[in-house]
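Support reply, case 0932

Customer input (verbatim):
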Amino acid sequence: MPIINIREQKNLLRVKHKKIRTACSEEIRNSLDKVLFEKFIELNEYKECKILFAFVSMPIEINTYPILEKAIADGKILALPKCRQKEPVMDFYSVASLDDLKEGKYSIMEPDTNLCQIITDYSDGLCLVPGLSFDLYGYRLGFGKGYYDRFLNLFGGATVGLCYSRCVEQKLPHGIYDKAVDILITEKFTNDTRNVFEKGMV
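Our regenerated output:
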């Protein structure tokens, strides 16, 4: 039986889904992002959460800025990540305004630690998880740095992934440290993967 190289498979899939996203026109992406935003804020998990762990999107990602602004307007604690400089670990800080962000590692906007307070309790809340692709079981394809894999193994709340339906795979390769999100939202369907008997099994 041939040995499956998961890392190689994931790298090929990253190339595939980056091409899909960059080939999508700005008009179409804006339209899809609006639908995803509306579906996300209608989730009971969002409405009921006191703290939202989220991320500041890069151009290739689904636009999270409306979600971040909505969370602040709704009076939720908005927690955003900051990558450490010398190790593949990120810390979350509460952000009261998007003006409290500055450019950080990988040119991603991050909390200004002089203005924002670090969060150490990861036992509850809702986490919006980034991904280039997700599968029907909630497993994700990230950018390969491992930051979220480490964080999700510490996180005790519910998790959500937003994805264009064209970037959803039936089943992604995943290892023992990969964590599936609880809810996958696309513009066409919402899939609660907690109802899947055994995630990742076809």
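We compared this against your earlier run and they match. Two observations from our side: The longest strand covers residues 77-83. The helical segments are 6-23, 26-41, 44-48, 65-73, 147-152. Please reopen the case if you see a mismatch on your end.
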